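tokens incoming
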């Protein structure tokens, strides 16, 4: 058990796989366990989960710096982006980063039958490449190697060109401060850095972008009063971003209702400093340049690291490691011990 930033985490030593699965604070895990116990006894009704969904929605809004009224709930990034992709005009041109996580790109690529095209550019070139496109979609922090998009440059390019922007903050929200009220769509899955169960995801929609989407997943929960839209026609959706709501995965939101408000209550500048400092300590101890990201990709064997008690993952042919608020310098030392005497290079 580790104490970190005012919470307890049952995280094993050497666990550096948060970019794949985050370890919940004890209160979040306990909330899910209590929900499972009530489920097995038939002790809940659908209305009993409304508070948890509202708390997770507010927590996400606070973490990315937007009003709660902009936030829709769903289950996965690709599911939430499907209405955005469906709303593109025929023949639309989509700009993405090379090697982008496919949950961010495939919803747009799947519109090829309508003449929609997807163009990949190097991450550093993406802001300058906005003009001439109908939308740009990019992760704030890249899943494969922790590279970060230049948000200031992207915002300026969006303002100059008028090209709407999709931001995926799945690998950024929870460990770095974000103020993204300027972006058109901001989406995230909760089971990584947001320390929630898989099955909870959120998307903030700027008011100017709401009419650009087609609610292809519309169901009863997308109504203004969900319990009043469970039967019969006509179509009657909520006026704001809630028209994109998918019926929530209840147990997932029980955990998210504890985890997201906890993260949003923290000094995220301090969390960012903690996480990036651990990652940069690892890099500099290996004779490599610091990068200021919580995610590190190394020319190393993840299976070999596992044999030394380090839990990581293999992505794009590299060993990917992530340092969250519950990690310590002991985890850095464990990686260094596993790598000696060889030297590694970071993923470029």
């Amino acid at each position: 058990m580790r104490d970190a930033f005012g919470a307890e985490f049952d995280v094993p030593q050497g666990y550096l796989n948060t970019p794949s699965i985050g370890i919940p604070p004890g209160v979040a895990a306990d909330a899910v366990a209590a929900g499972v116990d009530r489920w097995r006894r038939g002790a809940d009704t659908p209305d009993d989960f409304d508070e948890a969904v509202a708390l997770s929605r507010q927590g996400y809004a606070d973490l990315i710096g937007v009003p709660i009224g902009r936030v829709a709930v769903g289950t996965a990034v690709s599911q939430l982006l499907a209405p955005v992709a469906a709303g593109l005009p025929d023949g639309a041109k989509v700009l993405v980063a090379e090697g982008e996580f496919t949950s961010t790109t495939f919803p747009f690529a799947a519109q090829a039958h309508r003449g929609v095209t997807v163009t990949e550019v190097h991450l550093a070139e993406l802001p300058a490449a906005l003009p001439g496109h109908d939308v740009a979609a990019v992760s704030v922090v890249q899943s494969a190697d922790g590279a970060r998009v230049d948000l200031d440059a992207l915002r300026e390019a969006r303002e100059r060109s008028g090209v709407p922007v999709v931001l995926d903050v799945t690998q950024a929200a929870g460990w770095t401060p974000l103020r993204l009220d300027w972006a058109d769509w901001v989406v995230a899955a909760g089971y990584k850095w947001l320390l929630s169960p898989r099955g909870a995801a959120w998307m903030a929609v700027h008011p100017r972008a709401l009419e650009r989407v087609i609610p292809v997943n519309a169901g009863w929960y997308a109504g203004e009063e969900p319990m009043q839209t469970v039967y019969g026609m006509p179509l009657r959706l909520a006026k704001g971003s809630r028209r994109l709501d998918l019926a929530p995965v209840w147990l997932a939101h029980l955990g998210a209702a504890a985890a997201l408000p906890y993260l949003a209550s923290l000094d995220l500048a301090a969390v960012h400093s903690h996480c990036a400092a651990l990652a940069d300590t690892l890099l500099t101890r290996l004779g490599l340049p610091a990068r200021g990201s919580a995610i590190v990709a190394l020319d190393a064997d993840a299976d070999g690291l596992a044999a030394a008690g380090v839990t990581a993952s293999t992505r794009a042919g590299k060993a990917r490691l992530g340092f969250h608020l519950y990690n310590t310098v002991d985890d850095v030392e464990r990686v260094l011990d596993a790598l000696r005497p060889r030297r590694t290079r970071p993923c470029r």
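note: The domain at 2-25+267-339 is CATH 3.90.1150.10 (Aspartate Aminotransferase, domain 1).
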